[in-house]
From TrEMBL:
<dbReference type="InterPro" id="IPR011333">
    <property type="entry name" value="SKP1/BTB/POZ_sf"/>
</dbReference>
<feature type="domain" description="BTB">
    <location>
        <begin position="1"/>
        <end position="46"/>
    </location>
</feature>
<protein>
    <submittedName>
        <fullName>BTB domain-containing protein</fullName>
    </submittedName>
</protein>
<dbReference type="InterPro" id="IPR044714">
    <property type="entry name" value="AtSIBP1-like"/>
</dbReference>
<dbReference type="InterPro" id="IPR000210">
    <property type="entry name" value="BTB/POZ_dom"/>
</dbReference>
<dbReference type="Pfam" id="PF00651">
    <property type="entry name" value="BTB"/>
</dbReference>
Amino acid sequence: MVHKTILETFSPIFKKMIEAQNGDENVLEITDSDFETVENGINFCYGFPESVYSDINELTEVLKFSSKYEINDLKNEIEFKLIPQISNENICKISNAAIESKAETLKAVCQSKLIQFVKKATIVKEMKNLDCNFAKEVLANVCIPEGYMVNPFDVFTN
């Protein structure tokens, strides 16, 4: 059982959902995330951030959950848990999750690392699954001096 006050404190979305309920309803149904993801999010709200596991798949799902329900402290925590785990094996999955979750810090780190991987000719797993616009941004910046970013749409035109 989760206390409404805890949910309302951490999430304006949960607060709106609770306010929209009839007075005698005590259940919020969350159907867009699996049980583990919701449980990890709720545990964070109760002060157990260590319960948010280090598995990349779980972390990216919790990142999306935290973004959707605007649990910003959790979102920041997950971003900083993911950053040191970025590798050529998982960068596309993490980049896509960052884009979907509007996790700008994580997205910027992914972009920088992808540029490094491309410049070093490092094989990047699942590159075909990378968000197209993000891939254009990365490719547009591969040949540009460090510290200078270009608008990819100025480089790639239809």
